[in-house]
Amino acid sequence: MTVVNRYLEGQMAPVADEVTAFDLPVSGAIPTELEGRWLRNGPNPIAVADPSRHHWFGGDGMVHAVRLRGGRAEWYRNRYVRADKVATMLGETPPAGPAFGGRTETGPNTNVGGFAGRSWALVEGGGTPVELTYELDTIGRNDFDGTLPAAFSAHPKLDPETGELHAMTYSWPDLVDRLQYVVVDRDGRVTKVVDIPVSDMPMVHDISITPNHAVIYDLSVTVRFDLLEQGFQLPVGWNPDHPSRIGLLPRSGSADDIVWCEVEQCFLFHPLNAYERDDGHVVIDVCRYENLFVDDVLGPFSVDSPPTLDRWTIDPVSRKVHEERIDDRAHEFPRHDPRVGLREHRFGYTATVGYEGPSLHGSIYKTDYRTGALTEHDFGAGRGGAEPVFVPRDGSTGEDDGWVMVLVHDAATDGAELHIIDAIDFASPAVAVIDLPQRVPIGFHGNWVGDDSVPPA
Ligand SMILES: [Fe+2]
Hints:
By secondary structure, this protein is an all-beta fold. The chain has helices at 84-89, 225-229, and strands at 20-22, 26-28, 36-43, 61-69, 72-80, 111-115, 118-122, 130-132, 138-141, 157-158, 165-169, 178-184, 190-197, 208-209, 213-218, 221-223, 236-238, 245-250, 259-262, 267-276, 282-289, 308-315, 320-327, 332-335, 347-353, 361-368, 374-377, 383-385, 389-392, 402-410, 415-422, 432-435, 446-450. The strands form eight sheets. Strands 2, 28, 29, 30, 31 and 32 form a six-stranded antiparallel β-sheet that branches. The protein has a five-stranded antiparallel β-sheet with strand order 1-5-4-3-33, with no helix packed on it.
């Protein structure tokens, strides 16, 4: 069989049904203090007009959730994030709510989490955040109650000190010549927007924040007009003529105050944590691509440029960046203990990616940045773990005292499981394995949302 688009095949193929299942089978013991929902968003195209031009990042959003309480996996649900196309095909009324740039076709497909007591599905590039109910029904597009002027991001960063969300946003073709730095207060209202002039329309997937800086990733993947003319759904690609640079924007400043620092040409989707040293240098751990979207313009996983685990140390005075390789293996979907956000972290968790085996994913890793030790959790042949979400144990203070929640894809059974791993005893088998009632297509990001953060309606 000829594969037209590998991002629509095998473990990445969409699922057809919205399923509700109760009392899921569990092996082991779910920690009883975990009360809330594990959420994950990803593309699940309900229809594809031209598979040869379909980009993985362009599929209709679908959120999967597992609700835990009292040591039980009470329910699983998966629901499309409603937008015009999905609603029309399901015979429903399209959702209401403001849409920047008139973008109502596809629902946010990239991240999902809780903030300001509500549940949100998020995407970059201009789509308005969509508010969901506790049980994943779409409430509607929500521009933070009328306070968001334009685009948002799938990767806002929470400042644990202030409770604010910080996002670096962009939108094509509505904001052709700039990014926008957006701050949302703990009540869910935008309080700050800073325009940042850029050229070539770079793809800016994420942000880092430190106590004093918002970090801008102006790297070498940009809009490519040749792809646009050829009808590609998401016309972005490697641009060797666009230098890679990092900007340090003072959190209280404007675009004129940005300290720009060149790095070796590269791209990254995701930083791990960032922090400032006592000498003012900024340290960022990243999953760095030597290049991206060179031959494969339908998705990110060319086998010739696996993302490596690197550390960047930025001197804001000299504007020099010391680039250091931590590990040569492929690392993506980095996570850390949210309690150490903006301060020096010791541990990071990543998932490997690559197209050599039967699955996009394989082992997950725990990196100890203090000792240099790297611990692998191997799920066995044909099985791969996705984004490893760290959840602190109630009342604990140790940075790795908690659990890693990870979706495991099984190529042999075409099934999916949610594993809960003791992060201190990272290499050992999971303390609990929850069988999900259907395959979950390989997708993007999610979070653990405790009921103390977003209570059941
Ligand atoms: Fe991402």
